[in-house]
Amino acid sequence: MKGDDGLDVRDLVVQYARANAPAVADVSFCVPAGRTLSVVGPSGAGKSTLLRAVCGLVRISRGEIAINGRSVVGKPPQDRRAAMVFASDALARTMTVRENLRLVLRSRDRLDRVEDVTRALDVHAHLEKFPQQLSTGERQRVSIARAVLSDPAVLLLDEPLAPLDPDLRVRVRDEIVHVRERFTGPIVFVTHDHSDAMAVADDLVVMIDGRIEDSGDPQRVYDRPATARAAAFLGARPMNLVPGVAFGWDGGLAAFRPERATLVRDGGTLCGQVQRVERTGADVYVHVQTQHGTVIVRTASADTPLIGSEIRIAVAPADLCRYETAAL
Ligand code: ADP
Q1: What is 237-323's CATH number, 3.20.170.30, 1.20.1250.20, 2.40.50.140, 1.20.1560.10?
Q2: 168-175: long-range contacts at Cβ-Cβ below 8 A with a sequence spacing of 24 or more?
Q3: 4, 193, 231, 242: least CB-packed within 10 angstroms?
């Protein structure tokens, strides 16, 4: 175990009673002080369980969890100094925002911090209101402020953006980045949404079925996921996966992002028929039925082909990821 400041999780296993498989299976990572780790994965991946294990809200079956170099395994939640923010806020409705925040201060001489942190999270104007007078987004920001003010050793954010509308999500995640300037410890941010994960992350972990599929620099993980399962999950439109033989390889799988492929009249490697044209406003996604399954290509709206037309798809070799696995 390292002696450094931060959160260190080693070989963690959490097996719920009567569950067939562990919710968290041999997970290891560390988050140094000052860094934000995003853990992204589909629903049921074990992300919440992981945070709850760090907090001391679930019993671990095996492994080690250390905060600032000291093991917290077996310690009750109140002795771990791990503050967790959930998708639903847990603010006392009978108290004003200011009273809710003062409740967690470890000493009265930190009152000036209330001003500073609530300004950073843009809830300063609501200090005298009750939680039920605030919008969901404002309540969520107060919850984050409260967690920061409790002076934790580690800050754990469990899908805090989940209840928010898309425009508010962007705003609150910007404010999470501002929180970074006020909180010097490690932050772990858990989400199923890859763009939220990437927006706040210094480091990214992709977790599926209780296991870490990939971890590291967010852009590297996005561009070249370590496993085919990570490739098939990560992204607003995940990577296209086709048999390696489509690109002349012996076997395995080839993966490429919709935005890295181009539709061409001649040349290209894959061919097929345009099945569907999906417009999102900013982009157009063309779904092409090929002999290797449906392949999605992002294109400019001016170049949109007609449904039913035959088209070819080109991918630069540098934009292809190769996986030795035969299937997901
Ligand atoms: P995520 O946060 O990624 O959606 P969870 O950690 O909530 O995933 O769940 C991981 C797995 O553990 C799921 O299969 C879920 O059904 C199971 N699980 C979660 N909580 C419990 C529990 N209290 N008892 C038994 N199984 C649970």
Answers
A1: 2.40.50.140
A2: 168/136, 168/137, 169/193, 169/196, 170/199, 171/137, 172/137, 172/140, 172/141, 173/199, 173/200, 175/120, 175/121, 175/122, 175/141, 175/144
A3: 4
